[in-house]
Amino acid sequence: MSSPRVVLIVDDDQSFRRVMEFQLGEDGHRVLTADGTAAALQQLKSAPVDLIISDVKMPGDDGMQLLARVKAMQPELPIIMLTAHGSINAAVEAMRIGASDYLTKPFTREQLRIALNRTLHVADLKRENRQLREVIADRFSFEHMIAESRAMHQAIEMAARVAQSDATVLLEGESGTGKELLAKAIHFHSGRKERPLVIVNCAAIPENLLESELFGHRRGSFTGAVADKQGKFEAASGGTIFLDEIGELPMTMQAKLLRVLQTQEVDKIGDVRPVRVDVRVIAATNREIDKMVADDDFREDLYYRLAVVAIRMPPLRERTDDIPRLVQHFLAQHGRQGQPPRVDDAVYSAFNLYGWPGNIRELENAVQRALVLDRDGVIALDDIPDRVRTAQPQLAGLRLELPDAGLSLEDVEREILVAALTKHAWNQTRAAAYLNISRSTLIYRMQKFGLERPGAEAE
Question: What share of the chain is helix, strand, coil (3-state, %, to 5)?
Fold first, then answer.
């Protein structure tokens, strides 16, 4: 039996209401009664109800009208309709409007108990599913994504703008930059959020199984196909499919994926008829697809189909402003309950100098390691990996292009000063620390080149 609930009985027959009240009361439920639609609506205003059991035929506004009004007010409230023997049309119409179940009079006490328990169980599942989706959507909200840096702000802003559309999105960036996290945020902010999000790692599936995994097959279509198989695109129909490592797709599969994007139909192996699907595609890659296109390793037409909206996820070395918040997030996520350990300033300095080839994933692992090794509640240099502790400034990330005609060293110095000041919103203390010089030295060099914060003169 289900746990006790509040059940509202709506019927114009007083003796029937008393019998129902007695039976449901013996099963532990709290029972409210009403003799018609008006009284039932008044009960709903005065007390919360878990389930309504209503007769269809009543004087005045009948059960169908009550059903329609309740669904407009409380769409999730389950209703069991009671119909007369042989009134199958009324039962069908009630289910169409939104009734959870129906019983035909007369019915046994056991039939009532089974219908009530089944309806309440389904309602509980729907409520739990809705709450879970709300938690997931909140977890993957754009507002909760860590983005102090300008580059990350731009990526998130673009993703938020494209989320409500059905446009195909290509997420580009190095491994570990958070492409899958952004793909989930796009899905859970889209109109498809109530439908599935199917994630496929194209590099993890053997080439000979890839077509079957993506598009499915019919029983007997090849050796080992002992049953029909639904492909990932079918499973994602109505929702979103996230194709990670899209750059690893072999050329033959690229052509078949292109057809799916063009027609919204998949060809199952061994099936003579295509299957219609309604799928939003988000793809991701850590490779330079445009270079692959130039080298004939990736179809140009597929690239343009995928990159309707292309979003570049910046590597961690380009968003060092985010490191402190990311560290605090990982400390809270992986640390023991209570006050998280303090992080020594020298650790942050080392984190800022390190190039983070593994990006956010590598930073998370470094924080987990520090939590394991910490003994005194302070994460110090000896708690972080040697490669991070001994890191040197990563000048290769500047991507300097030297002109054949030569250049001025002072011009280069000036550009570096402007870039550092701009990166830190013209905060002289932070810019000086970033350049590993004193604040007075920075001010001297700013005066040397006549550098002022934009708008400062007007102020």
Answer: 50, 15, 35
* Separation of alpha carbons 201 and 402, rounded Å: 40
Tokens of 315: 């590597």
- Secondary structure E strands in 263-355: 265-266, 275-276, 280-285, 309-312, 342-343
State which of 111, 134, 157 marks the end of a domain.
134
17: Cβ–Cβ under 8 A, 6 or more apart, which residues? 9, 11, 33, 35
Q: Do 288 and 160 belong to one domain?
A: yes
Note whether 133 and 247 are within 8 A (CB): no
Strand duo 51-55 + 79-83: pairing: parallel
Residues in the chain, how many?
459
Nearest to 181 by CA among 365, 306, 361: 361
CB 7 within 8 A of CB 30: yes
322 and 335 co-located in one domain? yes
- Which residues are paired to 243 by β-bridges? 200, 283
Q: What residue numbers bound the domain in which 411 lies?
A: 402-449
> How many folded domains does the chain comprise?
4
- Per residue in 335-390, pLDDT (tens digit) is 877 788 999 988 998 998 898 999 999 999 999 999 999 888 899 999 999 999 88
For residue range 144-164, list pLDDT tens digits in order: 788 888 888 899 999 999 999
Give CA separation, 405 vs 324, 399, 402, 411, in Å.
Answer: 42, 18, 9, 14
Can you spell out the DSSP letters for 62-113?
-HHHHHHHHHHH-TT--EEEEE-TT-HHHHHHHHHHT-SEEEESS--HHHHH
Contact between 327 and 365 under an 8 Å Cβ cutoff? The reply is no
Residue 47: pLDDT band by 50, 70, 90 thresholds?
Answer: confident
Neighbouring C-beta atoms of residue 441, cutoff 10 Å: 12
Going by their DSSP bridges, the two strands 280-285 and 169-172 should be labelled as parallel
Phi/psi-derived region of residue 79, left when phi > 0, alpha when psi is between -120 and 50, beta in every other case: beta
